Amino acid sequence: MAKLEKLATEAADAAIASLAGWTRQDEKWIAGSYRFVSFPAAIAFVSQIAEVAEAMNHHPFIGIDYKKVTLRLTTWHAGGLTELDIRSAERYNEVYQASIAGQR
């Protein structure tokens, strides 16, 4: 994998602004939270996220609080946020939209 470059603050802010449900936690982290109709639905989402993370070789920190899943991202080797974090968050949002579409 090519070396990932840390995003400039302005570029990171602009990218995060386009990510529904994601916020900057500090200079190095972004976090997104997702709500589900049931605990099993939340766990199924986490399983899908694991598959995406493996395929992208970029793994989030995952918190599960009953029907709420929180994902946190950073790129350790770059010392902060990179395009890989943004692309991962975009993919996780896509997985979430597909997950909740099946719950309606």
Describe this protein's structure:
44% of the residues lie in helices and 19% in strands. With 104 residues, it is of the alpha+beta class. Strands 1-2-4-3 form a 4-stranded antiparallel sheet. A hairpin with a 5-residue loop joins strand 1 and strand 2. The chain is globular, with a radius of gyration of 14 Å. The N and C termini lie far apart (39 Å). The model has no long low-confidence stretch (mean pLDDT 94).
Relevant terms:
104 residues, alpha+beta, 4-stranded antiparallel beta sheet, 19% strand
Would you kindly provide a brief summary of this structure?
The chain is an alpha+beta fold and 104 residues long. It is built from three helices and four strands.
Measured as a percent range, the helix fraction is 40-55%
| Category by helix and strand content | alpha+beta
User: What Rg is obtained from the alpha carbons, in whole angstroms?
Assistant: 14 Å
Q: Based on DSSP secondary structure assignment, what is the total number of beta strands?
A: 4
Outline the secondary-structure elements.
Layout: H1 9-17, E1 22-24, E2 30-35, H2 39-56, E3 61-65, E4 68-73, H3 83-101
Antiparallel strand pairs: 1-2, 2-4, 3-4
